[in-house]
Amino acid sequence: MSLNDTMHLLRAWLRDPRSVGALAPSGPALARLMTAHVDHAHGPVIELGPGTGVFTRALLERGLPGHRLVLVETDPVLASTLAQRYRHARVLRMDAARLGRSSSLFGDERASAVISGLPLLSIPADKVAAIIEGVFERQLQQGGALYQFTYGLRCPVPRALRQRLGLEAERIGGAWLNLPPAWVWRIRRP
Ligand SMILES: C[S@@+](CC[C@H](N)C(=O)[O-])C[C@H]1O[C@@H](n2cnc3c(N)ncnc32)[C@H](O)[C@@H]1O
What we know:
This is Class I SAM-dependent methyltransferase. Pfam families: RrnaAD. By secondary structure, this protein is an alpha/beta fold. The protein has a single domain, classed as Rossmann fold (3-Layer(aba) Sandwich). It has seven helices and seven strands; from the N terminus they run αααβαβαββαβαββ. Strands 3-2-1-4-5-7-6 form a seven-stranded mixed sheet. It is globular and about 40 Å long. The protein starts with a helix and ends with a strand. The model has no long low-confidence stretch (mean pLDDT 94). The structure holds S-adenosylmethionine (SAM). S-adenosylmethionine is lined by residues 12, 19-22, 25-26, 48-51, 54-55, 72-75, 78, 95-97, 117-119.
């Protein structure tokens, strides 16, 4: 994690603390855990709330071609930095809650995985519902999964919402050395 990236995220946090939700980018162990199960042979990938691009880098290092990746980031400064850094990926300066209003971001194809760094615990419940619904109803292919980290012990997608959408959640690991420690959840529709 570079000092430059920490400053980038810190400035974004000062602009909008609730939406950024963290003072420093995630560490490499969490990035590995978040991306370990993504198989790019199965389809393109969407990343929500990439921030400075810690998970983006891990996805590309795992062999995902840049043109098979869409980054959805609401902060305008972070979005333009990402666009300069990851020239082959498509960067959308957009609220992830709008995912359900557009058709698939990949045209006829749907994503095999959605990697989310969104601070779901500090996002209002109706917006969380719009994001999760958009992901599962419009963007993910059947059998695809949403990977979401959280600093809390419970699944950050509320149980009632999971039940309404028929989703199953499984905690797939923890990154104890991350600051703060974080857990990763895989959410799928069986
Ligand atoms: C906790 S930071 C995580 C950044 C990075 N993924 C990491 O782990 O270091 C949350 C990011 O989500 C973005 N974000 C928050 N709400 C969003 C939304 N509704 N749509 C898109 N991006 C959002 C913030 O601007 C910020 O970049």
